[in-house]
Amino acid sequence: MNQPIQTDGLIIDCKDIYLREYRLEDLEKLQEITWQPEVYEFLPGWNATFEERALWLVEYEIPQNQRFKQAVMAGEDIGELYLRMAIVLKENDEFIGWCCSGIKDELPAPNREIMYGISKDFRNRGYTTQAVKGMVQYLFEHTNVEVLNAIALTTNQASNKVILKCNFEPVSSIEIENEKYNHYQLRKQQGHV
């Protein structure tokens, strides 16, 4: 995998997909995917209104990606900054999901998490696993991150499989907002992807 930081945006190259920073033109597709029952069943709270999603994208997500990228380029601590990346098919540049990293307050420190979602039309093709592995490799090679977390609802078999395929190790089960999750961790020194 190749992870160049380019002046026009951060790109994380994977096998069949690439990760790139969110763009304004992603809004409609992002909104459409978050309203798929297969997505919001496992990602409570992601099915926001179009107006909320637009506000988040413009006011928080895109600017915070810029701050994250600036911190990495300056060799600074990324702290609590989030990185939100679109999962894009190489063959046609279609936005099919997202892979993000940020702080999960409900987890004990160090609590940087990897999270993801993919359209129902692109499941079971290995794209999510490629995205997570690409994000993990980027974070471990280009930031000061030493430990990554992932959580998945205990009922979300597909997500639990992705996490395990990416070499995360089970830590415990936790409850967040009355929902049971499996909690996993991956340490930099374990050797990743």
Automatic annotation (TrEMBL):
The lineage's top-level taxon is Bacteria
MF annotations from Gene Ontology: protein-N-terminal-alanine acetyltransferase activity
One Pfam family hit:
Acetyltransf_3
Is Ribonucleoprotein there in the keyword field? no
Q: Show the SUPFAM superfamilies listed in the entry.
A: Acyl-CoA N-acyltransferases (Nat)
Sorted alphabetically, the keyword list is:
Transferase
**Where would I find the N-acetyltransferase domain in this sequence?**
17-191
Its cellular-component GO annotations read: cytoplasm
Q: Which PANTHER family match?
A: GNAT FAMILY, PUTATIVE (AFU_ORTHOLOGUE AFUA_3G00765)-RELATED-RELATED (PTHR43792), RIBOSOMAL-PROTEIN-ALANINE ACETYLTRANSFERASE (PTHR43792:SF9)
Name of protein: N-acetyltransferase, GCN5
